[in-house]
Amino acid sequence: MLTTEIVVIGGGPAGMNSALAAASQGAEVTLLDRNWELGGQLVKQTHKFFGSENQFAGERGIDIAEILSERVHDNSRITVRKNSSVLGIYHDGVLTFEQDDKYKKLTSRQTVVATGAAEKFLSFTNNDLPGVYGAGAVQTLMNQQGVLPGKNVLIIGAGNIGLIVAYQLLQAGVSVEAIIEALPEIGGYEVHRDKIKRMGVPILTSHSIKKAYGEERVEGAIIGEIDSSWSFIDGTKKDFKADVICLAVGLSPLIDLLHPLGLEISYVPNLGGLAPKRDEYLETTISGYFVAGDCAGVEEASSAMMEGNIAGLSAANSIGYKKSFQEKFRNNRDELRKLREGETAKEVRAGLGEVRL
Amino acid sequence: MRNSTEAVVIGGGSIGCSVAYNLARMGVEDVVLVEKSFLASGATGRCAAGVRQQWGTRENCLVAKRSIELLEDLPDELDAELDFRQSGYLLVASNEDEKSQLEKNMELQNKLGIPSKELSMTEVGGLVPHLNVEQAKGACFCHEDGHLDPFKTTFGYARAAERLGVEINTNTEVIDINYENGIESVVTDEGTISTELVVNATGPQAKFIGQMLGLEHPVEPERHQILITEPLEHSLDPMIISFQHNSYIQQVPHGGFIMGYGNPNEPHYLNYKHDWQFLESMANKAVQQLPPLEDVRVLRQWAGHYGISPDGQPILGEVPGYKGYYLACGCGKGFMLAPAIGEGVAKLITGEEPSIPIERMNIERFKTGELINEPAVV
Amino acid sequence: MRINNHPILDQKKEEEEEITFTFEGKELKGFKGETVAAALIANGVRVFRRSTKDNRPRGLFCAIGNCSSCLMKVDGESNVRTCMKRLEEGMEVQRQEGEGEI
Amino acid sequence: MTEEKTEIERSLTDDLLPSVERRKEGPYALCECHQRIPCNPCLTSCPTGAVSLDSINDTPEVDFDKCAGCKQCVSACPGLACFVIDETYSTDSALVTIPYEFLPLPEEGETVNGLDRKGNFVKEVTVKNIDSFSDNGKTKVITVIVPQEAVHQIRNIEIREENHG
A160: which of A1, A35, A343, C23 lies 20 to 30 Å off by Cα? Predict the structure, then answer.
């Protein structure tokens, strides 16, 4: 049985910051990630990030991943275990995981869950055809693996992810036929939208996909305009030829690992789905289990980093690493509060009200 | 929610829904079912989904046999797909004692019309090529036993009951029962229902309802843990019961291997926690029995409960001295017995002749000491 | 189809080792260490398996090991998540028909 | 389409532009960023302190007396929403500086298509120079010579295929 003081599950922006924050207080940390490189979703984000200097504003996601990952690897208090999928978290504080196909067990005094989010799916005819991808898959293929997902793409969803993926596809030389959005307004940031518009990509609001078609793979899609009750309007059918349909219809927190512990969760659409209840230190209703980042409620990477700091500091604090804890906690909390003050974070603010203990 | 009704069934598991459906089918038009969580949220939804007749007592055998008979037509009757698959149960003995017990049970089963038979190791090899028979001393097989989907069955009963006018209230918890020379009403967190008849179908939680009437029902929750693997192409027909390993393993229609066991010696309380020790020991048990499972991935694990009685038999019928208060507890195998228990208890209530020896399974037996010990529980 | 020129990403492929693997017995080229799924997509393969129920074609969907759309048979082992499995020289990759075999 | 109208209004309100006098004095930055999002590299990258944000969620305000038109913000803005305009280039042409993150790159002196905010072709324009500042030079900062009348229209360029095979 392996032991550690604090285990952090997930090596994305929230998890890496958690590990760094806890280690900076003096705690001994083990960071587990199922991928072969740290960074989570950062490793496929070629665009520059928003926020302030504390969240590496202006740096590209891929570069932030590298900076944080280097800091984590250089920190002698952090043991990094990559290729490590956590199998289960148990009531007696034991965590089981599989590293390089080997079953292992680890006990810890505190646990930070930073497992991120899963992409939502969408119901339409033939949505299982090869060529229907989640937006994350398109990013992974292009930006991590250097492989093109196809030649021409139809994107479903004009939130930030849909807009960003459109831009990334254009950068890789792929044609983006259109972005369609079921809501009457674009959900993503205006600056992301403007980048796409300048490239001449049509964004069709109040539109949805009816069906994909193709023999053994996507060859195109039928889309149409929808009314306020989400029904297709007669005579608005359009046929787009495309070999990729990219779904960017939102994310939901990944808290499957925490479920069996019996923590309190709420269904909060503004945070993406089922979100764990937690106090201001990001501790859930099960003592010793903290959450940070998208698994605590879907937001931006910048707030994930701040939450990571808070969870890491708090976890360390609760086992006696108290070095200027209150001050550091307040700084991070205030910074996080500022990030959430804008009009684009209105829904997140409302959602957080429903899960705060 | 209705505030007055002919009968209240407490518990939305397979037995509760079967009782409610059968009552309505037999003419009790006004039935209300209350379930504190969602349908099949307790023992039913957590069970290993097997149905078998190979028991060691006359009563268990007959109730199980009646269930299998009813299951033949049940999908049509309920107008629901139940995934009932008669792919058999294979009971494996690893020593002479177990073997002679199996033979004794088989004799009884055959006498009662259950077509179980002893298999040679060659026959076992033909039936389950993956099975490691090194340790096996004997095996018993009944082709009529098999698999039944707990969720589909419970929902099938529930929907059919609703079509007959039964009112089903989920997320409704019973907090008290008023009794004065007979049942008067059931108090729930959603309101009070006047009624003269209550059926306690709460399985491992039956004693908590009993306590509301000042009764001590001898039903204790025994935790079982179960895991399911990733789905694979069909390669295992029967449910494998091993007395040596105290475990059950079957491949469900979806393709996953479901397996589990309980530890009868651990303290009896409602404990929904599952542990890694189970994961490891079940994996060992499984690979010892079916070596090719070694490379198969586990998807999930969970815990549920048998509502265990001192003799391992169901407790059915009216509680003597408590007019209108009925028990319908399967006691450790409730899901597989639900069709016959539902029918039997409903017949008892409506004055029809039950198709199972229900009077033998009354709670009174624990007072008189006429226990009917079941030797074949795993 | 591989990206050879990208305004932001460094071109790593040149330093990487090109290797041979087989898909349905046919020899294909890929790069050591990339995912099996990426190598297949780069070679124009879209159908990774066929569904159990209606024998429908299935391909890559999530690419991060969350879903089970890309399960294939790799070196004889069924149900391998090809989006997480890294390519090695001589690997034998096959389409999976239905659920994997034991 | 109300959405399009808002967009144009938001991008070209008079109070966004410097005074007529200032426009005649030399290059100035335009931050076409009209939504309150948490972001501040325009402020942190500005060497003259011309950009102000009261809080991180404010939209940037440029003090044109301080702005030197140095193009740092064009390179730094994560939203690619900062541009530099120089209406003093000549009587009939002006300079528009845009961020550019695509390949192939045009060459200096090359003729490219000038596009508006919706990607529509406006006029042929000439690439004057290609700079890069932060970010290992990955975001190129391209200055094009545009007709004076199109200075508030052109915000993107498109390589002409005949120039790049």
Answer: A35
CATH code, B86-145+223-305: 3.30.9.10
Residue D7 predicted with pLDDT over 90: no
Do the beta carbons of residue B40 and residue B14 sit within 8 Å? Answer: yes
Apex CA B351: angle with CA B347 and CA B353, to 5°?
60
**CA distance from start to end of chain C:** 34
CB A131 within 8 A of CB A153: no
Whether residue A132 is found in the same domain as residue A62: no
pLDDT class for C14, splitting at 50, 70, 90? Answer: low
Distance from CA of B149 to the nearest CA of C (A): 18
Domain termination residue (choose one: A247, A269, A284): A247
**Does residue C7 lie in a domain region?**
no
Do A156 and A268 reside in the same domain of the chain?
A: no
User: What average pLDDT does range C81-102 have in this prediction?
Assistant: 94
- Joined tokens for residue B235: 């390669």
Tokens 């599989």 map to which residue? A98
Q: Strand pairing of B198-200 and B7-10?
A: parallel
Last residue of a domain, one of A247, A274, A298: A247
Whether residue C11 lies inside any domain: the answer is: no
Please judge whether C46 and A217 are an interchain contact, meaning their C-beta atoms are less than 8 angstroms apart. Answer: yes
Q: What is the rounded CA–CA span in Å between residue A167 and residue A200? A: 11
Interface contact flag, B279 A88, Cβ < 8 Å: yes
Please tell me the pTM assigned to this model.
Answer: 0.93
Among all residues of chain C, which has the CA nearest to that of B294? C102
Q: Which domain holds residue A184?
A: 121-247
* Tokens found for residue B288: 């010892």
C chain contacts of residue D78, beta-carbon cutoff 8 Å: none
Count up the domains in chain A and report the number: 2
Give Cα separations from B79 to B74, B75, B76, B159, B249 (angstroms).
8, 5, 5, 9, 29
The series of mean pLDDT values per 10 residues for chain B, 378 residues long, is 97 98 96 98 97 96 98 98 97 94 96 97 94 93 98 98 98 98 97 98 97 97 97 96 95 96 94 96 97 94 95 95 96 94 98 95 92 80
Residues A132 and A105 in one domain: no
Q: How confident is the model at residue D5 (pLDDT cuts 50, 70, 90)?
A: very low
Interface test with D, best of A47, A50, A195 (most D CBs within 10 A): A50
Query: What is the Cα–Cα distance from B54 to B117, expressed in whole angstroms?
Result: 10
Note whether A88 and A260 are within 8 A (CB): yes
For residue C38, give the amino acid letter.
A
- Among A45, A48, A347, most D C-beta atoms within 10 A, so best to mutate, is A48
Residue A292 and residue A307 in contact, taking contact as beta carbons nearer than 8 Å: yes
CB < 8 Å from B in window 167-196 of A? none
List the end-to-end C-alpha distance of chain A, in Å, as a whole number. 34
Tokens describing residue D111: 């003729």
Question: How far away is chain B from the Cα of A258, in angstroms, using its nearest Cα?
Answer: 13
Residue from B271, B276, B280 to probe the interface with A (highest A Cβ count within 10 Å): B276
Are A125 and A242 members of one domain?
yes
The reply to whether omega before D104 is within 30° of 0 (cis) is yes
Query: What range defines the domain where residue D55 resides?
Result: 7-164
Residues A80 and A148 in one domain: no
What is the per-residue pLDDT across A154-199, written as a single tens digit (0 to 9) for each?
Answer: 999 999 999 999 999 999 999 999 999 999 999 999 999 999 999 9
Task: Report residue B8: phi and psi, to 5°.
Answer: -115, 125
Strand ranges (E), D23-138: 28-31, 51-52, 61-62, 82-86, 93-100, 111-115, 121-132
Over residues A279-298, the pLDDT tens digits come to 999 999 999 999 999 999 99
Select from A192, A198, A201 the Cβ nearest to the Cβ of D117: A198
The ipTM assigned to this model is: 0.90
